[in-house]
């Protein structure tokens, strides 16, 4: 699940030590396997006031969570990889992974917010190339000493960066064909997002609204994986079901949720994203406990 800091203006109660400790420890005890934070270092005021949300820095927040949990994986949802120099990203991830005993999963995408790209000083039109070179740097510097790379905005003449993580799974976010090809080429997982037609137009991505939409895209992904000579059983797919509604609501139906999960599993989904209420910390905690008792323990 993603930490429910999901509105603007934000509720100050959600940006406290007590809230994050309670939320993370409750999620772990309830049986959740991963926790994420969104990545919006400099969202535009226009976006925030049109339904956007405030955010914590995912690296700082996940390192905090790592210190107060033992098992749950740390999975940003979702890191916009081109926003940052890849060597800085590599160091942040390797540090958290080391201090959490290897619990970091990098879920990353190219993003779509032009104003945020301008604010952090990165060329929006170069985002795909920047994403691909960042992956090369991450994989290289995590495995090689005296690593050299001539990037679009930087030059590494022979860097050695420690600690090196043993294995950080890389999930590729995004619904488009280029994202699926990246998964086939090097990814350990695919993390698409529900995108009705209106949202898909805004984000300039592929519509993904129903299980049948996902099935078609997965068929394409598996063809690409096979062409790349890789084993599809080694690739995670993270999505979410809307069957049964959301925990913490009066209409939530755990049985329908389990049926929806079974349907997703049948077509190759291995991780399910769960949304919990963001109206109060107590309500979010109650929803985590409800989902653990009525869905996770039954599944």
Give a verbal description of the structure.
This protein is α/β, with parallel strands linked by helices. It has a single domain, classed as TIM Barrel (Alpha-Beta Barrel). The protein has helices spanning 17-30, 45-48, 58-68, 86-99, 114-119, 127-141, 177-186, 197-203, 211-227, 254-266, 281-296; strands at 34-35, 73-74, 79-80, 106-109, 147-150, 155-159, 170-173, 189-191, 236-239, 271-272. It has a six-stranded parallel beta sheet, covered by helices on one side. Strands 1-2 form a two-stranded parallel ribbon.
Q: What characteristic shape results from the CA principal axes?
A: globular
Uncertain regions spanning at least 5 consecutive residues = none
Number of strands: 10
Helical amount among residues, as a percent range? 40-55%
CATH names the topology as TIM Barrel
CATH superfamily: Luciferase-like domain
Kindly provide the radius of gyration, computed on alpha-carbon positions and rounded to a whole number of angstroms. Answer: 19 Å
List the helices and strands in order: HEHHEEHEHHEEEHEHHEHEH
| Strand residue content | 5-15%
Give, in spatial order, the strands making up the sheet with the most strands: 3-4-7-8-9-10
Largest sheet: number of strands, sense, barrel closure: 6 strands, parallel
Q: Which CATH architecture would you pick?
A: Alpha-Beta Barrel
Overall mean confidence score, pLDDT? 96
Number of helices: 11
Instruction: Output the structural class.
Output: alpha/beta
